[in-house]
Amino acid sequence: MPANTRRITLTAIAIALLALPAQAAHGITMFGAPKYAPGFRHFAYVNPKAPKGGTLKLSYSGPFDSVNPYILKGVAAPGVNLYLFQSLMTPSYDEPQSYYGLIAQSVYVAPDRSYAEFTLNPRARWHDGTKITADDVIFSYHALREKGHPLYRVMYQPITNAEEVRPGVVRFSFDDAEHRELPIIAASMPVLPKAYYEQVAFDKSSLKPPLGSGPYKITAVDPGRSITFTRVKDWWAAKLPVNVGLYNFDTIRFDVYRDDVVALEGIKSGQFDYYEEYIARNWATAYHIPAVADGRIIKTKIPNKIPRGMQGFIFNLRRDKFADPRVREAIGLTLDFQWMNETLFYGAYERNTSFFQNNQPFMATGTPQGAERALLEPARCANLPEAERAAQASTCLPEKLFTDTFTVPTTDGDGYARANLIKAQTLLDDAGWVMRDGKRTNAKTGEVLTVEFLMTQRTFERVVSIMRVNLAKLGIDSSFRYVDASQYQRRVDKRNFDIVSIWWNLGLNFPGSEQYTFWHSSQADLLGSQNLSGLKHPLVDELVTRINRAQTLEQLVPAAKALDRILLWNHVVIPHWYMSAWRVVYWNKFGRPKITPDYNMGVDSWWYEPQKNVPLVKPSTLTKGGHR
User: Fold this and answer.
1) Which of 74, 282, 386, 505 is the S-S candidate for 205 at Cβ 3.0 to 4.6 Å?
2) How far apart are CA 226 and CA 315, in angstroms?
């Protein structure tokens, strides 16, 4: 399903104090006030009269062996966290980081922000008809914090306690009143059934459908092949304003397609209904078929305002061969984006230049100024005594970070990146990796430099193959290793990789606690953490802490810019590319609301219209072969 994403601008949100409610409120937001006032009837991007019925068939790109998405063990099936379980509050898709009542009908945040209290909706029920209680919420907090995926342990670590302070009212206590996200982190916590998990081990992967409270139940599981969800027709939350017009299909089914080529043929032949196309070549060439020409399949681009985050190849800095940023920069110089974009991608993309791409307030542009510069100066190499400079060589910031604008490498697009390769050769030589017998070799240890690209998408092989040609010219042996999702996850969790591909997208969120999980030193050696690179940098640690604790945009913006700048100049990733539109293909049997939210495709607001699945043009208007 499409990711929930969001672009923020200073003019849209202004610089304001964190606006958490002074009394029990129907919703909370990070800055400013929620878009939807108390008593709103439904979100603007739904059709409140959408009919119910029909089936939505979707594809999924990897096998699964568990229906528990909240633990490290196993590979979770798609859709469980979307359709089976619910959180205390739920986000809207047309505003930044705002949450409205779901299991909790209201929230009260203490004036000193030391705690938040959630009043549960007395109508909230599990699928077996039993009431969702404060005990369930408290159990969920402890289960996720103590036995859940490491991500949840990190997220909930600053939440020191959960307790029922009045009947149906749960208080979450916080250890850091300046950590502005904690009320929203608590609000977005999934609620799990205590009674069920007293009988079934929460921390063990299983394919047995658990008890849920969401709009759908799991009604069929074919391990590693498909999972089917069936709409709960007497769902307790169907008439809440946050759900009106949503979850209209009677059945939603995910089928596993382990190969992108097979998935492409699947959407064209009607094996499933909706597909988001990520491959530019396919978008340009693969849909010249009768079903698209006569309107039975809709192929369309839908613009969005989603911050694109960072997509790229990320280095495993735990490996000594990647410890020197000059080595990482040299390897990055082998990616010839201009040639790839025209030759492989049909000119569809722009190059990533920031970890907060398309999120202008937080992107590091130009040279550091003002408050951002003040944050960076203490780690400036030129400011350190010579003895300290040598001791802190791996973490002090280079002079170019302060004087030059960071730019990604460019070429003239002719496929011969000679200037970049000459620069890469110099960087490698300076870093102590010299040529011996045609191999790039560590002058001190004799190690030969090799690089393995570990991927779950075969389509990356075309990209990597061009890089491998250039790497070979530098004397670097390289390989492309394609593995299935489960093997990939095991290797990544155990940090057994050189380079993998990532896409970090903030969704509807401002930079916040996720930056801690991505970059803080404490996460570098934690099994299963999101600090894939293994980066350990004292100023980065300070910056992600500042980001977490910022109370105003005036505090948040310079810290985010400084973080972005350090990561770019440290060449932690080889930036990829992005585009600001969804490329979607779907069979013409669905109704859609008039408004598509800017930050989500909103497929859960679509509905089934079987009468639509007919050609939009007469066969006589088609040329030979079915093409217009």
Assistant:
1) 74
2) 33
Summarize pLDDT for 330-387 with one digit per residue, the tens: 999 999 999 999 998 888 889 999 999 988 889 999 999 999 999 999 989 887 777 7
- Overall number of domains in the chain: 1
**Are the C-beta atoms of 511 and 560 separated by less than 8 Å?**
yes
pTM: 0.73
347 φ, ψ to 5°? 65, 25
Q: What distance in Å separates the CA atoms of residue 522 and residue 541, rounded to the nearest whole number?
A: 9
Residue range(s) defining the domain that contains residue 474: 310-578
Which tokens belong to 65? 């062996």
CATH number (domain holding residue 465): 3.10.105.10
Strands laid side by side in the 27-29 sheet: 27-29, 98-101, 89-91
The shares of helix, strand and coil residues in the chain, as percent rounded to the nearest 5, are 30, 20, 50
CA distance 35 to 272: 35
Contacts of 604 (CB under 8 A, 6+ apart): 1, 82, 246, 247, 248
Do 485 and 63 touch, CB atoms closer than 8 A?
A: yes
How many other C-beta atoms are found inside a 10 Å radius of the C-beta of residue 538?
12
Q: Is residue 381 part of a domain?
A: yes
Does 553 reside within a domain? yes
- From the number of C-beta atoms within 10 Å of its C-beta (0-12, 13-18, 19+), residue 17 rates as exposed
Give the DSSP letter of residue 380.
B
CA–CA gap between residue 533 and residue 263 (Å, rounded) = 31
Q: Does the residue 182 lie in any domain?
A: no
Q: How far is CA 348 from CA 56, 284, 301, 381, 579, in A?
A: 29, 9, 12, 40, 7
Contact between 217 and 84 (Cβ < 8 Å)? yes
| Residue linked to tokens 């992107």 | 363
- Here the tokens at position 494 are 């155990």
Is 227 contained in some domain? no
Of 2, 200, 263, 241, the closest CA to residue 102 belongs to 241
Could you read off the pLDDT of 545-594 as tens digits, one per residue? 999 888 888 999 999 999 999 999 999 999 999 888 889 999 999 999 99
Task: Note whether 563 and 515 are within 8 A (CB).
Answer: yes
DSSP 3-state of 141: helix
445: phi then psi, degrees, rounded to nearest 5: -100, -20
